Amino acid sequence: MPRVSEDHLTARREQILAAARTCFLRKGLHNTSMQDLIKEAGLSVGAVYRYFKSKDEIIAAIAGGVVGGISRRIDEIATQQLPLLESLSELLDVIDEQTGADGAFPIALQVWAESTVDPAIQTIVYERYTGLRASVRVLVAQAAERGELPPGADLDDVTSAFYALIPGYGLQRMLIGTPDRDGFLRGVRALYNR
């Protein structure tokens, strides 16, 4: 039997993940079955199960891809050594991309909701988002080194508060359509300068 190229394997995997995204957006995470994913992918049952043994594995792969991309963007921002609020501005650009038509934020909302009732999904969310928070901590540590934070500020406490701004902005944009990026930044600056 001829060997299948790595490019072919990657293309099939991406085909399945794209089908899953389509199904999740159309039917919702909870209401999408593996049969729905298989039909949407246009592949055989065996072909899909060759790559993913369960819907949870597909969710983990989607979350891993999104979080990995965002983490790389945070790392790029960290190399710029920007003031913390300028880093936030850059992060909001990332969130705006993810809340757009091709973004992952709509699926992320479903994953977050499902994590409250499904322990397997909760594990996925915990692993992915604690990893993101660790990336954000680098930005906070840089701010502390530059003297932007009060002396003795606990970096983990500041990271938790700063990190909450990022999905908080995305949630508001998805759920109610506001605030706009500039208004949000003005609000944060007003709080930050008190």
SSE inventory with pairings:
Layout: H1 6-27, H2 34-41, H3 45-51, H4 55-80, H5 84-99, H6 105-115, H7 119-145, H8 155-176, H9 181-192
Helix pairs in contact: 1-2, 1-4, 4-5, 4-7, 5-8, 5-9, 6-7, 7-8
Biggest sheet record: none
Which stretches are poorly predicted, pLDDT < 50 over at least 5 residues? none
Order of helices and strands: HHHHHHHHH
Which percent range fits the helix content? over 70%
Radius of gyration from the alpha-carbon trace, in angstroms: 19 Å
- Share of residues in strands: under 5%
Ends apart, CA distance between termini: 69 Å
Describe this structure in words.
The chain is an all-alpha fold. Helices cover 78% and strands 0% of the residues. It is elongated and about 60 Å long. The model has no long low-confidence stretch (mean pLDDT 91).
Task: Give a short overview.
The chain has 194 residues and is an all-alpha fold. Helix content is 78%, strand content 0%.
Characteristic key phrases:
mainly alpha, 194 residues, 0% strand, 9 helices
